[in-house]
Design a protein that fits this description.
- This protein is α/β, with parallel strands linked by helices and 614 residues long.
- The chain has three domains: 240 residues, Glutamine Phosphoribosylpyrophosphate, subunit 1, domain 1 (4-Layer Sandwich); 196 residues, Rossmann fold; 154 residues, Glucose-6-phosphate isomerase like protein, domain 1 (Rossmann fold, 3-Layer(aba) Sandwich).
- The protein has an eight-stranded antiparallel beta sheet, with helices on one face.
- It is globular and about 75 Å long.
- The structure holds fructose -6-phosphate.
- The site of fructose -6-phosphate has 15 residues, from helix 10 and helix 18.
C-alpha cells in the first residue's frame, strides 16, 4: 500500500527521500513522486511506475537548482484506489497551480465527492481523480500563512482515514504531519527529522522515534516538533527506540526477501517465544495479555479475527484451544466479523492477528468487538501499529521486519504465540502440570524443527522443478493440516500465479474431485497424526484419477512415501506443532516454483504488503 517519507534538516533532501522510497517499495505501489521546497518555491516530480523512474526524471532535469539545494521535501509511493495509476494521479498533490500547499496522503477521504463539489463551486479546478487532491485543495483554500492551522481546519471537515505530510511554499523548512487510522512515525536525528509511514524508511538514519496517535497533528521545523490534537490541544508523545536494526531490513545476500525471511524463521520463532515459555511450570508467561488467572477462568470463548495468512494462523488457534483448553474457540474473517453484527460480550477474548497491525478490516473488527464490550488482545508484529494501540493488550511477535509481500515468518511466529496462548488457557483450566510441560517443550522445540526442514531445501527444489509447469493445483489436509493446506495454496497462488485451491481432504468428494486429471496436481498433508490415514485414502482417489501427487510426510514414513509420486519430509513431532515445519516446507516449495517461473517474488502483481483499505 501507499508509503510516505518526509525530510527536514541539514542534509540535501532528494537523495534521502529517494532512498526512503526504495525502502517502502516492498509495500506495493504503482506510481511515485517527490516534492522539494526551497526559500521561494516548491517543485514536483511524479511518475507512473517505479521509484527509479522518478529518480531518472530528477537526475535528467536541466534545472538542478532546487534539487541540489533543498533541505526539505516529501515523497510518496501510491497504490491506486481513487483513479488509475497514472502520473497525474500520483502524489504529491498541490492545492493550486502556484502552489501554496503540497501534500502526500495515505488512507481514504470518504467524503471527498462532497468536498470536491463544494470546492468546484468556489471556482477550483482539479487535475486528478484522487481524494488526496481534494484534501490539498481544501487545505489550500483555508491557508492564511499557517499550515498547521489550515490543515487542522481541513482535517476537521474530513471523514475517513489519513496519514499526511504537507509543506507550504511560504513556510520553508516546515513539515506538517497528521494521522488518523494510518501510521506516521517521526524519526528524530541530531540535526534533522525524518517522517515516514513505516519505520523501515527511517531506520538507517535514526532509531529514536515518536509514533503519532490518531487525531494528532504536528508541526516540524528542523528538529522542533510541536504536537497537538485536531482540537488544537497541545500534547506530548514519548519517543521510543525502534527495536530492529537496519540490517534486518536488507536482503543479506539472499536472492529475495522472501527466501531470507523463510530462513530467518528459526531465530524469529526463538524471539517470539523467548522468555515466554516456562517448561518447568508447564506454562506460558504472557504478561502482555494482562489477565489474572481468575480473569482467564472467566473467559468462556476465544474469538480470533484476521485476514489472509493471519486468518489461517487463527484457524490453528481454534483447533488448539478446543483440543487443549476445553473452551469454545472460533476464527472469523475480520471483514465478515465487522459487518455481521456478531454476538460478543464481556466473556469473550477477541484475539486480532495482524503482521502489519494496519489491516483495515482487522482494525474495524477490533473496534466493533470493543464496542460490544469484549476483551481484546492484539497479536501484532509491527510495534506501535494501529491495531496494537487500539487493542491495548496483546503480544508482539518480535519476528523482525517482514519485507516480502508474501507473509512467511509472521505466520510461523503467529502460530507459535497462539500455541502459547492455548497452553496458558489450558493450564488455567484442566491441563495438568505434566501435560503442560510436554506442551511447553513441544513449543520450545519448534525452531529446531524448522531448522531440519530448511536443511532439505535441495530436495524440495527437485520436487518444485517437477511441478512448476502446472497452472492449477489442489492442497488437501485435515485437522491441523487443513490451515496448512490453506496457507500452502495462498502462498503458491500469490507468488507463482498458479491457480491453487485448498480443501479439507474430506471435501474433495463433494465436488472438487470433478476437476482431477493429469493436469491437476494434488499436494497432500500426510504427516503422521490423527486423520492422516483418511487423507492417504483421498490421495489414492486422486491417483486413480491420474492427478500427480506430492505428500508432505513424516521423515521415514515409507508407507506415506509409497502412496505419493513425490514426497517432502518433515521431522516427527506432535500434530499441533507440525503446523510450523509443514508450512515452512510448503513456503520453500512455493518459493522455488515461483523462482523457476521467473515471477516477481517479493512484490507480486496487484498485491500490497498491508491492506489499509476495505
Ligand atoms: C499473504 C499475506 C496476506 C496478509 C493479509 C493480512 O502472504 O501476506 O494475506 O496476511 O493481508 O495482513 P496482516 O497480517 O498485516 O493483517
Amino acid at each position: 500500500m501507499c508509503g510516505i517519507v518526509g525530510y527536514t534538516g541539514k542534509r540535501i533532501a532528494a537523495p534521502l527521500l529517494l532512498s526512503g522510497l526504495r525502502r517502502l517499495e516492498y509495500r506495493g505501489y504503482d506510481s511515485a513522486g517527490i516534492a522539494l521546497a526551497t526559500e521561494h518555491a516548491i517543485r514536483l516530480w511524479k511518475k507512473e511506475g517505479k521509484v527509479s523512474e522518478v529518480k531518472n526524471e530528477i537526475e535528467s532535469d536541466p534545472d538542478q537548482s532546487i534539487i541540489s539545494t533543498s533541505h526539505t521535501g516529501i515523497a510518496h509511493t501510491r497504490w491506486a484506489t481513487h483513479g488509475p495509476p497514472t502520473t497525474v494521479n500520483a502524489h504529491p498533490h498541490k492545492g493550486n497551480s502556484d502552489p501554496k500547499v503540497v501534500l502526500v496522503h495515505n488512507g481514504i477521504i470518504e467524503n471527498y465527492r462532497v468536498l470536491r463539489t463544494k470546492l468546484e463551486a468556489e471556482g477550483r479546478t482539479f487535475l486528478s481523480e484522487t481524494d488526496t487532491e481534494v484534501l490539498a485543495q481544501l487545505t489550500d483554500s483555508l491557508y492564511q500563512g499557517d499550515l498547521l492551522d489550515a490543515l487542522t481546519k481541513a482535517l476537521n471537515q474530513v471523514e475517513g482515514t489519513f496519514g499526511i505530510v504537507a509543506m507550504a511554499t511560504a513556510e520553508p523548512g516546515v513539515l506538517v504531519v497528521a494521522r488518523r487510522g494510518s501510521p506516521i512515525v517521526i524519526g528524530i536525528g541530531p540535526e534533522e527529522t525524518i517522517v515516514a509511514s513505516d519505520a523501515s524508511a527511517i531506520i538507517t538514519h535514526t532509531r529514536n522515534a515518536i509514533y503519532l496517535d490518531d487525531n494528532d497533528i504536528a508541526k516540524i521545523n528542523g528538529v522542533e516538533i510541536d504536537i497537538r490534537t485536531l482540537t488544537s490541544a497541545r500534547v506530548s508523545r514519548e519517543a521510543s527506540e525502534i527495536d530492529w536494526s537496519p540490517e534486518a531490513a536488507e536482503k543479506g545476500g539472499y536472492e529475495h526477501y522472501m527466501l531470507k525471511e523463510i530462513f530467518e524463521q528459526p531465530d524469529a520463532i526463538r524471539n517470539a517465544i523467548r522468555g515466554r515459555i516456562d517448561v518447568d511450570k508447564g506454562n506460558a508467561i504472557l504478561s502482555g495479555l494482562n489477565l489474572e488467572p481468575r480473569e482467564m477462568a472467566e473467559i468462556s470463548r476465544l474469538l480470533v479475527v484476521g485476514c489472509g495468512t493471519s486468518l489461517n494462523a487463527g484457524l490453528v488457534a481454534e483447533y488448539a484451544t478446543e483440543d487443549f483448553c476445553g473452551m469454545h474457540a472460533e476464527v472469523e474473517q475480520a471483514a465478515e466479523f465487522r459487518y455481521r453484527n456478531p454476538i460478543v460480550g464481556s466473556k469473550d477474548l477477541v484475539v486480532a492477528i495482524s503482521q502489519s497491525g494496519e489491516t483495515a478490516d482487522t482494525l474495524a473488527a477490533v473496534c466493533e468487538a470493543k464496542e460490544k464490550g469484549a476483551l481484546i488482545a492484539g497479536l501484532v508484529n509491527v510495534v506501535g501499529s494501529t491495531i496494537a494501540r487500539e487493542a491495548g493488550r496483546g503480544i508482539y511477535l518480535h519476528a523482525g521486519p517482514e519485507i516480502s509481500v508474501a507473509s512467511t515468518k509472521a505466520f510461523t511466529c503467529q502460530v507459535s504465540v497462539l500455541l502459547m496462548i492455548a497452553l496458558k488457557f489450558a493450564r488455567s483450566r484442566r491441563m495438568s502440570i505434566e501435560s503442560g510441560r510436554c506442551f511447553a517443550k513441544a513449543i520450545a522445540d519448534i525452531p529446531a524443527l524448522v531448522e531440519e526442514v530448511l536443511k532439505t531445501e535441495d530436495e524440495i527444489i527437485k520436487v518444485a522443478e517437477k511441478f512448476a509447469q502446472y497452472d492449477h493445483c489442489f492442497f488437501i489436509g485435515r485437522g491441523y493440516m487443513f490451515p496448512v493446506a490453506l496457507e500452502g495454496a495462498l502462498k503458491l497462488k500469490e507468488i507463482s500465479y498458479i491457480h491453487a485451491e485448498a480443501y479439507h481432504a474430506a471435501e474433495l468428494k463433494h465436488g472438487p474431485i470433478a476437476l482431477l486429471d493429469e493436469n491437476m496436481p494434488v499436494i497432500a498433508l500426510l504427516n503422521q497424526g490423527p486423520g492422516m490415514e483418511k487423507t492417504m485414502s483421498n490421495v489414492h482417489e486422486c491417483k486413480a484419477r491420474s492427478a500427480p501427487t506430492v505428500g508432505v510426510i513424516t521423515q521415514g514414513d515409507e508407507e506415506a512415501r509409497s502412496s505419493v509420486d513425490y514426497a517432502i519430509e518433515i521431522p516427527a513431532c506432535p500434530m499441533h506443532t507440525s503446523v510450523v515445519p509443514a508450512t515452512v516446507a510448503l513456503q520453500l516449495f512455493s518459493y522455488h516454483i515461483a523462482r523457476i517461473r521467473g515471477c516477481s517474488i517479493d512484490q507480486p502483481r496487484n498485491l500490497a504488503k498491508s491492506v489499509t483499505v476495505e
